[in-house]
Amino acid sequence: MKQQKDIIGQRKEKIQKLIESGVELFPNDYRVSHTVKDIQGLLDGQSSDLSEDTRFSVAGRIMAINRFGKSSFLRFKDRTGQLQAYIRKDKVGDDAYDLYKKMDIGDFIGMAGPMFQTKTGEWTLLADSLRLIAKAMRPLPEKFHGLKDPEKRYRQRYLDLIMNPEVRDLFVKRSKLVHAIRMFLIDRDFLEVETPMMQPLPGGADARPFKTYHHALNMELFLRIAPELYLKRLVTGGFERVFEINRNFRNEGISTQHNPEFTMLEFYQAYATYEDLMTLTEEMFQSVAKSVNGLSEVEYQGELIDFSQSWKRIPLLDSLEQIAGVDPALFENKEKLMNFGLSKGIPFGDQARESVGIGKIMTKLFDILVEPKLIQPTFITGYPVEVSPLSRRNRENPDLTDRFELFIAGREIANGFSELNDPEDQKNRFLRQLDTKEEGDETPEMIDEDYIRALEYGMPPTAGEGIGIDRLAMLLTNSASIRDVILFPHMKHSEKS
Q: Which of 218, 290, 309, 326 could form a disulfide with 320, with the two C-beta atoms 3.0–4.6 Å apart?
């Protein structure tokens, strides 16, 4: 820390001298003619020097300097890559070379000149002019050790991106992922829409929201936990295929899989069922994986995930029997099913025996005993009504719903279902959800009456789905933590600089 303060002090003194000598530290009139990638493309296949008449105007951040008296090599980087430049006093002139000697690693420099090949065959810019474009006051991390501390990388993502090119590549992949999803749905006649992020009532998922207050309207608002109820209002209004790539906010725990602010894709298709969406999801993931990585399979934390194989579809109750070893006879006896869970070390709250239904017990057993074992893409279907307040009941078994969740690498990636469009059934389920809230549950006790009103005008049979963009990005970039795929993840306050 003291060494860094000393360097900053030295740079401040240097900056003051530059100002006194009339050097502009942050000019805004420099223009580039080529990026590093442009130049490399032009040089592809060239085996000798280009004509000296071919000049390139470039700019970027200085990443390394190797001085030799009246000449010097440096490496700089722009958004497309790194390139070497050769600075000679007799080429750039005395004044420019004196200025260059006062530049530091981390500064932004603008240079112009032709390209030539060094004795080792490396293409290099021979600068015949140079300018300081932006002065860096703080030093970059020492290049041999780089920036490795995860906490500092997350808190100072700008340094992470400067020092670790693989991190930049990761976020380029994430951007490609979002673009590929968007184009996949647009090509299938889905309309991209935007719905409110501040809502008078939180809905669409069971989660504790963030609260805010609008003074002009004199009302409390909530940051959305899901856009679902608004998107289904649009289906009612006649937009039969809609999607939103949205930011959601949930005032809950933080882990390697959870960030309080996260990105979801939600889409809704009229005249479709949850089974149609399972097929669509397989096609989407295969298409997106190829767009991002060029393959329909990815390696994730030592496991090869193959999207091209036929994805398994397993009913929830069957998964409990086949994978968790639950005797099917227990599915009809809440007390015995809970005791089975307790025997496996699964905790249940003190109020569970009275307030929790058998459906919640089943899903709790699934979460702990089955979910971690679902490595290859697997759809789990047939969730209990108790834990699916917005899903259509299954015709053959009205205690279950036409719903699926997609699991890959031992975690949930997507959730979809045939939508409940019966307004009376929907209202009764909302009321029942309030009645069965566990003690200490901090989710607001509210029913979205306007959503019920929208259903009363008639919503066509519809299927909808939500996909966690962050978790999908983790999967396609082999990232162990959600913080690795979010540019600026939320973290506890730190006193460190």
A: 326
Tens digit of each residue's pLDDT (9 = 90 or more) over 8-26: 999 999 999 999 999 999 9
Say how many C-beta atoms besides its own lie within 10 A of residue 326's C-beta.
22
Specify if 494 maps to a domain. no
**258/186 same-domain check:** yes
Scan for tokens 């307790």, then name that residue: 342
Distance CA 73, CA 206 (A): 59
Whether 321 contacts 328, CB under 8 Å: yes
How many Å apart are CA 487 and CA 157, to the nearest integer? 7
Q: Are 206 and 99 found together in one domain?
A: no
Quick one: tokens of 270?
A: 């009229």
3-state secondary structure of 211: strand
The residue type at 183 = M
Q: Write the pLDDT tens digit of every residue in 211-249.
A: 999 999 999 999 999 999 999 999 999 999 999 999 999
Q: Are residues 311 and 398 in the same domain?
A: yes
Specify the amino acid at residue 133: I
| Host domain of residue 92 | 2-140
Q: Express each pLDDT in 404-456 by its tens digit.
A: 999 999 999 999 999 999 999 999 988 887 876 655 566 666 789 999 999 99
What's this model's pTM, rounded to 2 decimal places?
Answer: 0.91
Q: Is residue 44 part of a domain?
A: yes
DSSP 97-130: HHHHHT--TT-EEEEEE-EEE-TT--EEEEESEE
> What is the enclosing helix (H) or strand (E) of 292?
helix 274-293
The answer to whether 404 and 388 have CB atoms below 8 angstroms apart is: no
The answer to whether 203 and 226 are in contact (CB under 8 A) is yes
**Which residue in this structure is represented by tokens 């590093």?**
36
The C-alpha atoms of residue 24 and residue 30 are separated, in whole angstroms, by 12
Whether 348 is in a domain gets the answer: no
Count Cβ atoms within 10 A of the Cβ of residue 130 and give its class: 0-12 exposed, 13-18 middle, 19 or more buried. buried
Is there a domain that residue 355 lies in?
Answer: no
Q: Which amino acid is at 345?
A: G
